[in-house]
Each structure stands twice: as structure tokens, then as C-alpha cells.
Design a protein that fits this description.
The structure is a single chain. By secondary structure, the protein is α/β, with parallel strands linked by helices. It is 46% helix and 18% strand. It contains 13 helices and nine strands. The strands form two sheets. It has a seven-stranded mixed sheet with strand order 1-2-9-6-5-3-4, with helices on both faces. A two-stranded antiparallel ribbon has the order 7-8.
């Protein structure tokens, strides 16, 4: 298919979605450039081996998997590697992984040498449908998720749905939470599809539709000051739940699933969201109390607005 173009304040970048993309390196990547490839230890090397075989990879950095890498200490360690290897400003960083790698590498790119180019190569469902698009990049600090961040769009986003074949079921469910969120806030037809679909009948069009919706929000409100905040549906409580359990008990999508159930007051909408979450093996509740979560969260008005908008569509 034709690339999806996303307009930001200073540039336009393509999102390319194609099965087998990673086996066509010379078609999609500039082989004249130098690259740094940053990935995590859970990603099978067979997925990025074609990049190593074809591109000028000046440095391969493999980080531990999980939210715990989005720290100032890991950032400092990676900076020292870039400096030691004399990585110059014309290098392109490759964020090869899920949302955590995308956030981390994007922030690194935004700050190293006052800004270098980076390409998002998302390898999880969640990162393909959501976090790789829009230019939000960040680190965590203590229990505050994404508290140190920037808006820094990538040079391109390259999505190969074939890499999803090696995902464990829990990571499929993790991504489905963000798709359910997107459908609930803006696409009743997609939501109805999710109500009848299964993971076994999942098709690439679900990825495409989710990205097109994300593109709309990002282009309308790039810096998250208005309508883009609707994408935070479920995230206010979700981030607090993640932090409360020190990012150990739940994946991001699982925490957002619980957050959506907690914030939704419309009975019909809540029932249908619950049905969808259960269908894709996502949790719908947790025993942690509101009083316990409140110190970890500022309950923002954007989720209340989302509730009102949802009611108008249901």
C-alpha cells in the first residue's frame, strides 16, 4: 500500500506498512547512511539480521526488555557508548522494538548532539498501532511514567506485520487494548469488528485503521494540548496502576484496560468494553483502591471529555 504521510510542525514523515518489509532493506533504507541499531534482548535476532547484513551499522546496542530501561541511568550508559564510538550527527538511530524502545530511542535522538534522525521499526502490536506514531518520546523518573520527554517525530516508521508472528499471546493482548481504546473513542464500526473478531482472524486492516485514527489526532493537535488528549482514555488510572506495581504486574495495555473500566460510567459502553477486553484476554479490574492510586495520579479532565464523547456515539 501507499505510505501514510503524517504532517508535523516541521516535517512530514511516512508510515510504511508492508509484509516482508524487513527482507527488502535496500528498497526502504538509504544504504549510503550510517546507522546505530538499538533493540532489546527479547527480540529474535532473525528479525533485524537483514539490517545488519545490508546497512552500515556502526553500533548495535541491545538493552534489557521492559519499562525499567527508560531511566536516566540507562540513558547515560547509552550516551557514553555513542560518544565512545564517535557517533556523528549524520547517523540515523534505528528504534527496533516495542513502545519502550521507541520511547527511549526517540528521546535519545532528540537530545544527542541537539538532535539526530531516527526511524521507528515497531515490532509489537501496541507499538505498531499506537506508540510509534506521533513523536512522543520520553523517559520515566521514579514512579512518574514519561515525565521527562519531548515531541520529536521520527524520520520514518517502517512496519512489517510479519514480525508479529513471533509475539506471545500476552503481547497481542497488550496491543489489542490500545486498539479497543481507539475504537471506543472514535470508530463504532471498528469497535463492532473487534466484538466479532478474534486474534486468529486478526488482519492488517486493523493496524491500518488504528494508525489512520492516530494520524488524525496527531495532525490536529501535535503537542497534546486539546483533542489529542482523548487518546489518554484509560491511561490516567492505567499509568498509576503500572507505577503502583512498579511495572511488574501488568503490561501497559493491561493497565490501560483496567483504567478504561474504571473511568467509564456509561453502562452500555462499559459493558461492551468489558466484553471486548475479556475477548482478548485482558483484565478488567484490580483490587488496588482509588485512595491508594490518587497519590500516583492527577485525574485530568481529558478523560471526562472522552466519556462525554463516547456517550454521544453509543
Amino acid at each position: 500500500m501507499e505510505p501514510i504521510l503524517v504532517r508535523s510542525k516541521d516535517s512530514t514523515y511516512p508510515i510504511v506498512i508492508e509484509r516482508g518489509l524487513l527482507q527488502q532493506v535496500k528498497v526502504f533504507f538509504d544504504i549510503q547512511k550510517d546507522y546505530v541499531l538499538i533493540t532489546d534482548s527479547m527480540i529474535p535476532s532473525m528479525h533485524y539480521q537483514p539490517l545488519l547484513d545490508t546497512l552500515s551499522i556502526k553500533l548495535l546496542i541491545t538493552l534489557p526488555a521492559g519499562e525499567q530501561i527508560k531511566t536516566l541511568s540507562t540513558y547515560q550508559d547509552v550516551l557514553e557508548q555513542l560518544i565512545t564510538h564517535r557517533i556523528k550527527k549524520d547517523v540515523v538511530l534505528l528504534a527496533f522494538g516495542g513502545g519502550v524502545i521507541g520511547d527511549f530511542v526517540g528521546f535519545l535522538a532528540a537530545t544527542y548532539l541537539r538532535g539526530v534522525s531516527y526511524i521507528q521499526i515497531p515490532t509489537t502490536l501496541l507499538s505498531q498501532v499506537d506508540s510509534s506514531v506521533g513523536g512522543k518520546v520520553a523517559l520515566d523518573y521514579q514512579q512518574a511514567k514519561n515525565i521527562i520527554g519531548q515531541f520529536y517525530p521520527p524520520k520514518a516508521v517502517f512496519i512489517d506485520p510479519l514480525v508479529l508472528q513471533t509475539l506471545p499471546q500476552r503481547q497481542w493482548s497488550n496491543g489489542m487494548a490500545e486498539i479497543i481504546k481507539m475504537a471506543a473513542i472514535c470508530d463504532i464500526h471498528l469497535f463492532e469488528k473487534l466484538e466479532s473478531m478474534t486474534l486468529e482472524t486478526f488482519d492488517d486492516d486493523v493496524i491500518i485503521q488504528s494508525i489512520l485514527h492516530k494520524k488524525h489526532y496527531v495532525e490536529t493537535d501535535e503537542f497534546d494540548q486539546g483533542i489529542r488528549q482523548h487518546l489518554n482514555f484509560g491511561h490516567t488510572f492505567g499509568h498509576a496502576i503500572e507505577a503502583y506495581y512498579n511495572y511488574q504486574k501488568y503490561t501497559h495495555g493491561e493497565a490501560v484496560a483496567i483504567g478504561m473500566m474504571r473511568i467509564t460510567k456509561n453502562p452500555l459502553l462499559q459493558k461492551r468494553i468489558q466484553h471486548c477486553l475479556i475477548r482478548y484476554h485482558l483484565p478488567i479490574e484490580d483490587e488496588v483502591s482509588l485512595e491508594t492510586l490518587l497519590p500516583l495520579v492527577s485525574l485530568r479532565s481529558e478523560e471526562r471529555r472522552v466519556g462525554k464523547e463516547c456517550r454521544s456515539r453509543w
